[in-house]
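Why show two proteins at once? Because comparison is the fastest way to build intuition. When a single record is shown, students tend to memorize it. When two are placed side by side, the eye starts asking what differs. So, the first record is below.
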Amino acid sequence: MKTKISFFLPFFQIFALIAFALGFSASAYATLCSSSGQYSSYEWIDGIQIGSYSHASGSNNGYADFTTTQIIPLESGENNLTLTPGFSYGSYPEYWSIWIDLNQDDIVDDSELVFSGSSSSAVNGTMTIPATALPGKTIMRVAMKYDSSSTPCETFIWGEVEDYTVDIPAGSLPEPPTPTLYTLNVDNNYILSRSGNIGEVAVWVIEKDGAIVLQRNAANELTYKYFNNTAGSKFRVWLSENGQQASNIVEYEAGKPVSTHEISVDENFRVTRDGTLDEPLTWVFEKDGVVVLQRNAANELDYTYFNNVNNVYYRVWLERFIDGAYEIVSNVVYYVPGAVTNPPPEPPVPTLYTINVDNSYVLSRTGELGDSVTWQIEKNGVIVLSRNASFDMTYKYYSNTAGSQFRVWLAVGGQQASNIVEYEVGSVVSTHELTVDANYMISRSGTLNEPLTWVIEKDGVDVLQKNAANELSYTYFSNVNNSYYRVWLEQFVNGAYEVVSNVVYYVPGVAVNPYIITLANNYDLTRDGNIGDPVSWVIEENGAEILEQDASNGLIYNYPGLISGSNYRAWLVQTVNSQKTVVSNVLEFTPGPSFGTYSLSIDPTYRLYRTGSIGDSLTWVIEKNGTIVLQRNAANELDYLYYSNTKGSSFRVWLEQVSGYGYYRVSNIIEYDVQ
């Protein structure tokens, strides 16, 4: 979506031209949307270099307009660049984005992103000017944001934005033709096959999630299957000769079938497929989300559904029985008989996001940072966690109890917005507790003679595996200042080493606990230090991490979701060398029966009642048969009757309140079955 501020457009355009001619410091692009960092005292854009041009800018309090004083000549095609951050204290992870108004419409557009990268030091890379860019002078926006990427018209907390004018030359390079010396194909088993002959000087090139992971000689094979097709990863494969692409590119996502057939639909709703007769294929027709026909397609290359109904939404695809299950092996076409538009409108997206889970129970999602989504985690049929997912693309639930069944999905506005992934946790759980002191000595719980192993990781690489059976504490002999260390315990279980402890972190040269936090009688958490310190509160409830909340803007925080009788732990974390590390003591507390939460009750007609007052910022949350079906504002009502109490269904109801990054439960849970 394009964003633009354009009040009284002619006046501003005239003003911009006059300002440019007279040398005023006003922007040459007066209608451009605004973007800046609110605080640049800790990090800022120190300088940029593009090709032979360089500019040292230093800190400019969050925003600098160089559009009338700095004009950067660009090259057609690729431009080498270096982006340098400035820091007042230690370095932090910074995310860089560059946009250029390529069509010169005075709008900075998401689609006009020409470079992105991240680092806690200078970033080197290449910025490509596409052939479609209009020649001449236009705006370039450079943004540097702490800990996550920005959008082109965003005002964020930490970092800085700078605007420049760039000069794009005429005659950008045309797109190269796609080489076709070879033809590649991939089947549903991810077996790659190529044209050509044995003995040809060709190389398989395999790209996984955007990074090349394998280059393998293809001279002696016409087929190949990559050995590490990790579920959920996206792959691109091609052949190269002498370092140059020499085939088409095939793409697939591991864990999903590969579409091997193409189908189309005409104006009479006749569906036609490619391929040949006698292939073991099945037509599948879906009507308004419900499959209404599965028909053998082996003996026909086209088919018209016999019972089309006007203004009803149809989807059609091909399936094939593979390895004991039916798999989709075609694209999906859709049509709406009697629709006013032609072609019919795009279908409603049943799942806005896709999530996956790996063997370590790490969840990953599609989409972008900043998306207004929530992780919903159900354990043995009961939702146990609703966690804001806006600020993470991956998450691991910290209470994966052995033997429990889990279902996880994403929600938007209380409604399911992704597929559901399911997993059952194995028998090995964390059975030991590790701690680290100010001298980086690691101590473990348990007794001597347990068959345990210390594992020490330095900057992401294992540097030590040491027998821990005969010692309850250990200090690594080769700590290096400013390196990032992670330590845990492993045990040999059922033929493999399993992690059986929590993970502790430390950075030599950085105090283990530079901050002290305290707890008041009203459960206010108070930290020392200063406003602006780049630290975050972490709250753990009954062993599960439920909140990470920015602590830079205040010294006191009260978590609104505290539940009487639950066990809590709280601490501060800080990002050091691109890794989050604990930087405070850990407080443990259990709110007593007198803790002031809201109370819910229910009468025989299933009408719900709450304590509190009109105007309290609360939300009713209603779960039906394990799925959240309603989130309703409760501020203006002290009672509520759910409109769809279906007989035979089981319901759970509670109140939530928004605070910080998400919604948190602030009441007891009412459960009832409708008879």
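Second record. Ask yourself what differs from the first in the token line.
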Amino acid sequence: MASKALFKGKSASAATAKNEAGGIAYALSAKEALAQIACTGCFNNTFYATAKDQLEKVKGLTSKCDPEFLGKLAIYSREKGFLKDMPAFLVATLAGRAAEAFKRGATKEGEDINAILWETFPRVIDNGKMLKNFVQIIRSGETGRKSLGTGPQRLIKAWFDAKDDQGLFFQSVGNDPSIGDVVKLARPRPMTLSRAAMYAYFIGKDVGKFDGKDFITSASLPETVAHFESFKKEPHGEPPKVPFELLEGLPLTLDQWKQLALRQSWGSLRQRLNTFSRKGVFGKEGAWDTETVKAVAEKLRDREAIRKAKAMPYQIMITYLNMGPEIPRQVIDALQDAMEIATENVPVIDGPVVVMPDISGSMHSPITGQRINPKTGKVEMHTSKVRCVDVAALVAASFLRTNPHAMVIPFEDKALTNVRLNPRDTVMTNAEKLRSLPCGGTNCSAALRAVNEFGVRPALCVYVSDNESWLDSPRYGGWGGSKTETLREWEIVKRRAPDAKLVCMDVQPYETTQAPSRNDILNVGGFSDQVFDVMAAFVSGKSGSWLDVIEATE
């Protein structure tokens, strides 16, 4: 018999990779890694990787995944993760893969991919911004082609045909590319005179031809567009009901600004509170316009409006952190109420809960990454003022709100076990306490070690981290048979609490984890509240992994 000492099997729990910080870790499967990037990546620089690195990783991972999974992931990333660039990239990848299949004569394969593409496209490319993202990505050549070609042109034409004139006009905001650029590239065929005039309007033509007859663009525009053009020349009376971006540069009166504020959608209102304040919509300290302030506050805390807006808790935090001192207290309180509503689907767990937010140095980078100015080569921090640590604090505070006996253990190079939070405080208040804690290196196992030192028998432990642990690597700079310290500590927890489950919520687009996925460990990525639903399904046994949830997408 061969020597067992020499030819023993490799431990299933041995670390298989290095993470971006250089510590030992477990490599995610291609599908897991792509899902992680698709729900957290924004093609910007992160603390440990560049935007170019991220793009190359995505391209490599998509080549290892089947078209059906790519379609499902694109839909999930858009509808549940609420991202923009990543789902558009996945759809563009499908278009490129279909074209490549036809080019090499694999007609059946190309037709199958096209069938998936036609189901995926309208659910992902669901507004003008997404359409422009798709066109820009296609033209970059990063997904296999630099021109639209027949397939994407047909998809875009169908997108145009599905919109009525007003809806199309509302989706036309923005440039680089503009909606006019898309019209020139896709060449959609107008079915009515008003649509022909709109296409001419978008590309800057004063005259055109429809059904064999000449027309003057300005005289043939739909009523909404004609009203807007007239208002631009003489901005009197009620502003036309068009996107805010088309009106904000016009010389409006105070009454007109108030009308605009009161008819904004929930998301648009949230984003523009400071703008409306500067324009005098709320009045000023000691002389508030109580009627307007009350109406705005009621809309901000409207449950149905929040649901319809698909508001992510971190977006509400962005607004809260950026509100100027001149914003009325009633509006600030309404925004805190909105946060309570946006986080109320955090699962209530039957048993002890431990939440472990990472507050280390890398977590103080922007949640959506850093953008490099191509002209200066310098980092621009304007992608988001919300940092990864803010999201971690927000998740921890949300869990404490619905699970008031939860233990919150922030960690950096050590666990901070003396942090006291009041579950009766608002989510925003507790998140502020956590996000303000001092930071250091990253030692994920420190939090679980504290759980073991306290002798807790948890039903659920939740990490919120970028998973880039390195201080606790037993063999820094290498692996080969070693477990991560996080997994070692978790196995000690399991001896004491056999039914316990661990959730590793990752908020950055990396490809490794500190604890590999299995029936008691869930790895999930993202920073939308959909992550809470995935956690709830895992804890209840309705799903075994995050991939199960994505694969269930129709």
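One difference worth noting in the second protein: Residues 1-11 have pLDDT under 50 and may be disordered.
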